[in-house]
Amino acid sequence: MGKSSRYFAGLLTVAFLIVGVTGDPAMAQGKTKKEVNVNKASVPTKVLFDDDRVRVQEVTFKAGDQGPNVARPFRVIRVLKGGTIQRTHPDGTTDNVLYKTGEVKVYEADKPFVPKNIGTSDIVFYVVALKDPKK
Length: 135
Description:
The chain is built from 2 helices and 9 strands. It is of the alpha+beta class. A 5-stranded antiparallel sheet has the order 1-2-9-4-7. A 4-stranded antiparallel sheet has the order 3-8-5-6, with no helix packed on it. The model is unreliable at 13-40 (pLDDT under 50).
C-alpha cells in the first residue's frame, strides 16, 4: 500500500470514527433523520453528520436525476449502488464515470460540473466531504 493510499485510508477511518464517537442525538432517541435536499437540484440527500470539518451524507441519484453545478471539496465516496454518472463541465464537455457497487473513490477538490445519472436505475453514494478549514 502506497503512502497516499495509507493517508486516504486513515482519513476515511478518522471520518467514520468522528461519526461514531459524536453520535447523533436524533438517532439515539429512536428518531429517524429526515431526508433533506441540501442542494438546489433534484438529488435526494440524507445528511448523516455535519460539523465545521466534515459532512457525511448519503446521496441518491434516481434515473435521470441531475445534481447541482457547484464546486466540490476533497471527498471520499463509497458506492452503495453503482451506475454511470455523466459529468458536464462549464465549457460543455462531458465525461462518463462508471461507479461499481462496493468501490471507494477519492477525489481532490473539483471545479463545478453537473452530474447526471444516465442509467435506468438508482445510484447511491456514501460521501465523506472535507470542509475548508479557513471558513
